[in-house]
Structure formats: structure tokens, C-alpha cells
Design brief:
Blueprint: E1 2-5, H1 12-21, E2 26-29, E3 40-43, H2 49-58, H3 61-71, E4 76-79, H4 81-84, E5 89-90, E6 103-107, E7 120-125, E8 127-128, E9 143-148, E10 150-154, E11 160-165, E12 169-176, E13 179-182, H5 190-202
Parallel strand pairs: 1-2, 1-3, 3-4, 4-13, 5-6
Antiparallel strand pairs: 6-10, 7-9, 8-11, 11-12, 12-13
């Protein structure tokens, strides 16, 4: 079962429906103890960084997430804000992030000659940095749907899974072991989103 964390933010129904379309058993979980029944976990998110961290702490999600991810080694996928929350911090707020991947979310800054709207909204290509990853077997024309004003920077380049261009090159996917994140919305990205969810579902915990 794939647990979609309901901490009050995110496109929960769309994610669960997409998982079911690829044949996965998906459940929107509303309390931390239910994570124990999951084979893998999705941390969605839309909105502001501080609100997201406040809801995770207020709902006592973090201890249970850390038990499932670090002790039981279950795969976790953060989506959009859910990916940014994996970092140490964000320019968007003052809260400390989860710190599971070393990095920071920053607002888009373009060269002086570049004038593009913020948020970055629409379809953009994603360039994987690794052969074996969430993006394996995708078509060359692998566009995904983005809606965001902030993007992450990683302290360790080995954590970068994919990049995208929007006025500048930015990190659009990360991975450190069983912890993964994507800045785009696979649940809104049609066939490529389905392929990515299928790859995630196929990942198994070593325990």
C-alpha cells in the first residue's frame, strides 16, 4: 500500500487516483500511526513552507515518518512543497525544514536580461542526471507540469536527480537513498506522471 500523507496540504485525491491507475493500492492517511501499514509514502504539498512544517509538527507526523523512512527504509516521494520540506530551510519562511536532504529552497532569480513570470507555471522538460532512477524508460520528450516560485539548491551534487531550465537551470528532482522529491506535479503530468508513479511503486523497501 502507498500512503499519501494528509497533513492538510496537497492534491491528495489526484495523487491517489493516479496511483490506482497504475495498479497500486493507495490510501490517504490521516494519522501518523497508519504509516506503519504502508510499503511506501508520498508527501504532497502546495502552499507555504512554514505552514507545511507547522502542520507536520502539529500533527506529530515527523517521528512516525522518520521511523518508517530511516529505520524501516521505506521509499518516500515528496511532491512540490513536499520536496522543499525535505531541505534544511527555505527563503520563503523561518521554520527549520526536515533536513533529510542537505539544501535550501530559494526564490527564482534570473539574469538581468531574462524576464519571465513567477511562478513558473506550465510544462517543462526534465533532464535526469542518473541512468537508474524515477525517470528510467521515459520518452525523450518528457515534459512535466510545474507550478512554483521557489526551487531547491543541494549542498551535495550527488543528491541531484534531475534539472530543468526556466530562465536558469534549477534542480527539479532529488534523491538520497530511499528519499526522493520532485518539484513538478506528476499527478497532473499525464502519461509521464503515470510512468514516474509506476517507477516509484516498483521500488521496494529492503526490510
Amino acid at each position: 500500500m502507498i500512503a499519501v500523507v494528509d497533513y492538510g496540504l496537497g492534491n491528495l485525491g489526484s495523487i491517489a487516483n493516479m496511483l490506482k491507475r497504475v495498479g497500486a493500492a493507495a490510501s490517504i492517511v490521516t494519522s501518523p500511526e497508519l504509516l506503519a501499514n504502508a510499503d511506501a509514502i508520498i508527501l504532497p504539498g502546495v502552499g507555504a513552507f512554514d505552514e507545511g512544517m507547522g502542520r507536520l509538527r502539529g500533527g506529530n507526523w515527523i517521528p512516525s515518518l522518520e521511523t518508517e523512512i530511516f529505520q524501516k527504509r521505506k521509499p518516500l516521494l515528496g511532491i512540490c512543497l513536499g520536496m522543499q520540506l525535505l531541505m534544511n530551510s527555505s527563503e520563503e519562511g523561518v521554520s527549520q525544514g526536515l533536513g533529510w536532504i542537505s539544501g535550501r529552497a530559494i526564490r527564482f532569480r534570473f539574469p538581468e536580461a531574462v524576464s519571465l513570470p513567477i511562478p513558473h507555471m506550465g510544462w517543462s522538460r526534465v533532464r535526469p542526471c542518473r541512468d537508474k532512477s524515477l525517470f528510467q524508460n521515459l520518452d525523450e520528450d518528457h515534459g512535466f507540469y510545474f507550478v512554483h516560485s521557489y526551487h531547491v539548491t543541494c549542498q551535495d551534487g550527488n543528491d541531484i536527480l534531475a534539472t530543468t531550465d526556466y530562465g536558469c537551470e534549477f534542480v527539479s528532482a532529488v534523491q538520497r537513498g530511499n528519499i526522493m522529491g520532485v518539484q513538478f506535479h506528476p499527478e497532473k503530468s499525464h502519461k509521464h506522471g503515470m510512468n514516474l508513479f509506476q517507477r516509484f511503486v516498483e521500488m521496494k523497501s529492503p526490510c
